[in-house]
Each structure stands twice: as C-alpha cells, then as structure tokens.
Amino acid sequence: MIDVAGILKGVATFRDNGHATVAQLSRAYGRATLDRVRGLPAIAGKYEQLVCDAPAVLARSGVECWSPAFGRANELAAGSVELHPLAFTQAVLALAGLGWSGDATLNVGAGGTLLLQHFQVRVNGTVVITSRDGRIDIISDGDVMHFERKSKELYLVNAPIAVQSSTFGIPITFGYAIDPELVRPSDIPINESGMAAAKQSIEAAIDLLSELGSGAVSWVLQAVRQISAVGANSSHGFVGRSVSMRPGHIVTSAPHHPVLIAETLVHESSHQMFNLCRCLGPYVRDGGGDRMFCSAINGRQRTIDRVALALHAMANMYMLFDEIVASEHEYSEIARARLRNFSQVALSLARTVSEEMELFTDLSREFIENIVDVTLMIHGKHHLDNAEVLC
C-alpha cells in the first residue's frame, strides 16, 4: 500500500525529502507505466508472458523508474493504436535498462525513436531484443546495437564522444545524443571543442549542491537522471527546460555560472516531481481546475494547479538560495541577489495559492500549504517583505 499522503508531505520541499520517499514514488510511477502498457488491447496477455518477472525488477529498483525511458513508454501508450507496439517495445527496453533478463521479438511497423537509459534507439520493422549477463543486444532492420552494463549504467560499445558522464554518474549528453523532442530550433548546439567546458560547469553546479551537505543534494541527485547541454538560446538567452513525459531529463545552457545551473536543476526537478505526483491522485477539486488566475511568472492566466506548479519550483529555489547563504558559501552574495530578484514573483504566487486553498483536494492541501509556508518563511527571514505583489 502506497502512503500517498506521506509521499506528498515528503516531496513538498527537497529539505524534507529522503531517499526512501523518492524511491517509493519512482516505483509507483514504474508500476503505473507498466500497468498502462499492459492494459493496451493488442498487448494484453503477450506482455505478461514476455516479462512475467517485471514486478520483481521494479521491486529491486530505486529511483530508476523515474526516467525518460518510462516516460516515453507512457507517452506512446497514450497515443494512437499504431503506436502501441512501440509502447510495448519501449516498456521492454525500460525494464532491460533496470536489469531484466529475457528475449523479445516484436514488430513495430514503421517504427520510431525509443530510449534505453540515456541512449536513443531508432527501431523499425522486426525488432529483436536480448538482455542477459550484463549485455543488451538490439537488432532492428539489419542494424545491430550492443550495450554493456558497468554497475547500473549501460555503455554503447564503440560509443561516440557525444555521451559523457559527470562525477556523480549522471549522463551528460550533447548534440545528436539529445532527445529531439527536448530541443528547439533556436537552441544553439555545442560543438565538440565546447563539450569539456560545458561538462565542467555542470559538474561545478552539482559540486555546489553537494557542498551544502543537506537535503538539496540528496533530492536533486536522485531526481536528475540525464542532463543535456546546449548553448544559449538565440531568442531567450539561458535555457532551462524539461517535460513531464521525460522524467529526470533536464536541458540546460552550459557553460554558465554554477549557481544558475544548480538553480535550473532544482527548478526543473521540482516541476517534474510536482507532475509525477499527479499519478497518486488529483490536486484540485472537481470544477476547480477550470478557473483561471494571473500567474506572476509571466502575467498570463493559468489554472490554480499551474500556479501551484510554479510556486513549488520557486519554494525549492528559495530553499537552495537560503542554504547557500546560511553556509556562508563564496556564492552567498549571488544567492542573496537571486532571492531579491525572485521576491515579487514568489510573494505573488504564494498569495494567489493561499487565497484559493479551498480549490485543492484533501490529498494535496497539506502539500500545498507546506509550499506556501516555506516560501513566506524564507521571504521574511531575508527581509524581502518590501516586495510588491505583481498580480
């Protein structure tokens, strides 16, 4: 039995978040994904026969189900009937990435792009997957791909330089190795000569979180499953991006200042955690999701759950800056400046959410109240009370 209320309370802010909570939520997401694929009309029966040990694989997993591979399976399962064989194949690859052993032969028709850990795998026609003894072989339309496992991480034999790993074992990808659904035409790619500097600045941001020695590093380093680096965006400058169907995958500009990249990792991970918790139950009461409110992020009209989504990220960013200041880190003045920069937005979001608390379900209210309380507490602690409410 999943302790839904306990999970929501634990993920309200990263300071309160322990490894067990994140792992429990991750496994819940994995089960929900496999149940969705298992229930597809064309897959029922075949799925259980093929991966009968899936529950045991999930039980051994920690946070690995919170991954782009499981997100892709969810996305395909929600699509048209023609995509369901791909959803099935993606689920098999997601399980293989967790250490499932077995063989599968599948027909995916015209095919598509699937994910195996942080690798993109293009498949079409008949696909043969063999997973055992630390090795995964994939044959598709005559092309053969061989992957070998070292610890929990897979390596493509003769891998291109475009895939590297950070000090903490989080894959950092560049160029063609980035999931195309996460890249926009205005993103400036990083060429091979710029990869080392980009990787170094991302690692500096992770080191910063580690130096804080608090829940921040425990939470973020579990939440982030893959980082893709791009240059500045030609339209908007710095890039920080994620999508709900790619849990754990974050796109960030690099190289850049460690505080800004750390802020991006916390911000996007907060969004993903907030969205991931939706699989546990609704945030908003029936009818409450139709009303629109001004969001101080951009001044646009948003539903109350979208306003709460923005506040959740802001609360965790506030806590990051607060911990940097409290640790008397060399970046303390930068953190203070970031607190001042966001004070109007944070206060406005908190006021909007607190005034509409009756719209939230009994399940989510304590979670949402915690977000508001943390934001207002840090707001007062750093004497930001002169900030004006934007909307």
Task: Write up this protein.
This protein is of the alpha+beta class. The chain has three domains: 4-159, no CATH class; 160-276, no CATH class; 282-391, no CATH class. It is 45% helix and 17% strand. It contains twelve helices and 14 strands. The chain has helices spanning 4-10, 19-38, 46-50, 54-60, 68-77, 84-97, 195-212, 215-223, 258-276, 304-326, 332-355, 362-381; strands at 102-107, 112-116, 119-123, 126-132, 135-140, 143-150, 153-156, 163-165, 171-173, 226-230, 240-241, 249-253, 292-294, 301-303. It has a five-stranded antiparallel β-sheet with strand order 1-4-5-6-7, covered by helices on one side. It has a five-stranded mixed β-sheet with strand order 8-9-10-12-11, covered by helices on one side. Strand 4 (126-132) and strand 5 form a beta hairpin. Helix 11 (332-355) packs across helix 12 (362-381). The longest helix is centred in the C-terminal third of the chain and has 24 residues, at 332-355. It is globular. The two termini are 41 Å apart. The model is unreliable at 14-19 (pLDDT under 50).
